[in-house]
């Protein structure tokens, strides 16, 4: 990197800067190499300041939440990783709205809303990401998705450093798509508008949690569903029909319990996971004509693996 890294790190004033951090400890796949530096901003102002510094010096950066939808290259990330974590994770209720900072646990928010007598986020129990990650991915399950409940949100426009507060406009959310996604926009908080509980919210949340325990390979590290749902079909069904359940590359395996999940059975590398993703894509395409798109976000370089 053509700059004085240490001197620049010192300019992330209010931030705790860790050097050469293994991303395996910050991702639910438990794989991947090191980030050049990992910074956990303690406040919105600290994040804005740090973004100002990286832009001023042209330092590459990435933003992560809880790392539950990420596959980080084994070669690591030659960039500063900003992790929006617990320090920016407050949740409060006011006038029928729930305000959550981006670093809050999305599942904890969902649980809190139900405990307080509201419905609309029951489906989010068991999604292990942060509120910011849920907004960035427009996370969803069991017929619900983030877009339906976000009334307003606040983000940092990374290029200008400005804090923008707005109601999401038409087209800002789609299926596992959001306009509020790093690196351009970094969600820092959102207001969720929910309906009073119809009396069934607790039971629905318990039912969804039980379904996850029964149908998902939760005992193994993974990033949830590896692929997006193709139009009119299900990734898991296509993978199963292609005979890929239980297929392995190194320590990565197509789960026998739920073919939509690739799991780390122990000792998998990100290269194993990536190569298995590619294999699944090729085989499913050959059998069904459908090319599965990963839902999992790739961080760092994987392009060298495609040449093998
Ligand atoms: C067991 C399991 C079950 C899962 N079930 C579901 C499910 O039912 N439905 C579902 O949708 N997902 C599911 N997931 C995937 C994952 O939990 C969600 O996508 C989650 O919303 C990701 O949040 P995160 O904080 O971990 O984001 P990360 O994985 O850290 O980041 C994901 C993306 O969001 C961006 N990002 C993160 N924070 C911000 C921010 N503050 N501002 C802007 N961009 C940001 C990152 O740059 C990256 O592109 C599951 C994962 C696991 C491991």
Describe the structure.
The strands form 7 sheets. A 5-stranded antiparallel sheet has the order 6-7-15-11-12, with helices on one face. Strands 1-2-5-3 form a 4-stranded mixed sheet, with no helix packed on it. The two termini are 28 Å apart. It has 3 domains: 79 residues, Uridine Diphospho-n-acetylenolpyruvylglucosamine Reductase, domain 2, CATH 3.30.43; 109 residues, Uridine Diphospho-n-acetylenolpyruvylglucosamine Reductase, domain 3, CATH 3.30.465.10; 90 residues, UDP-N-acetylenolpyruvoylglucosamine reductase, C-terminal domain (Uridine Diphospho-n-acetylenolpyruvylglucosamine Reductase, domain 1, Alpha-Beta Complex), CATH 3.90.78.10. The longest helix is centred in the C-terminal third of the chain and has 19 residues. The mean pLDDT is 94. It is α+β, with helices and mostly antiparallel strands and 308 residues long. Helices cover 26% and strands 28% of the residues. Strand 6 and strand 7 form a beta hairpin. Bound molecules: flavin-adenine dinucleotide.
Ligand roster: flavin-adenine dinucleotide
> What's the number of structural domains?
3
Based on the coordinates given, report the CATH architecture of the largest domain. 2-Layer Sandwich
Number of helices: 8
The best one-word shape is globular
Tell me the number of strands.
21
End-to-end separation in angstroms reads: 28 Å
What fraction strand?
25-35%
Largest sheet: 5 strands, antiparallel
Strand order of the largest sheet: 6-7-15-11-12
Oligomer: single chain
């Amino acid at each position: 990197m053509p700059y004085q890294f240490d001197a620049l790190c010192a300019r992330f004033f209010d931030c705790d800067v860790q050097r050469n951090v293994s991303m395996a400890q910050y991702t639910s796949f438990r794989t991947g190499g090191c980030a050049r530096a990992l910074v956990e901003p303690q406040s919105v102002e600290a994040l804005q300041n740090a973004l100002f510094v990286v832009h001023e010096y042209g330092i590459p950066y990435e933003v992560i939440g809880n790392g539950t939808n990420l596959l980080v290259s084994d070669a690591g990330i030659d960039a500063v990783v900003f992790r929006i974590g617990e320090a920016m994770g407050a949740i409060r209720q006011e006038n029928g709205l729930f305000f959550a900072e981006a670093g809050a646990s999305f599942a904890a928010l969902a649980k809190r809303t139900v405990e307080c007598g509201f419905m609309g986020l029951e489906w989010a129990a068991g999604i292990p990401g942060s509120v910011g990650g849920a907004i960035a991915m427009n996370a969803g399950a069991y017929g619900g998705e983030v877009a339906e409940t976000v009334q307003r949100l606040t983000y940092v426009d990374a290029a200008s450093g400005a804090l923008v507060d707005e109601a999401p406009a038409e087209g800002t959310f789609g299926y596992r798509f959001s306009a509020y996604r790093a690196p351009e926009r970094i969600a820092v908080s959102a207001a969720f508008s929910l309906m009073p509980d119809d009396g069934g919210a607790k039971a629905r949340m318990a039912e969804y949690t039980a379904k996850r325990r029964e149908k998902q390979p939760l005992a193994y590290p993974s990033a949830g569903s590896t692929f997006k749902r193709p139009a009119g079909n299900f990734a898991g069904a296509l993978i199963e029909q292609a005979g890929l359940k239980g297929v392995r590359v190194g320590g990565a395996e197509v789960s026998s319990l739920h073919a939509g999940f690739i799991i780390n059975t122990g000792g998998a590398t990100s290269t194993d996971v990536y190569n298995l993703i590619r294999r699944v894509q090729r085989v499913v395409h050959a059998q069904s004509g459908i090319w599965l798109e990963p839902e999992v976000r790739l961080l760092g370089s994987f392009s060298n693996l495609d040449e093998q």
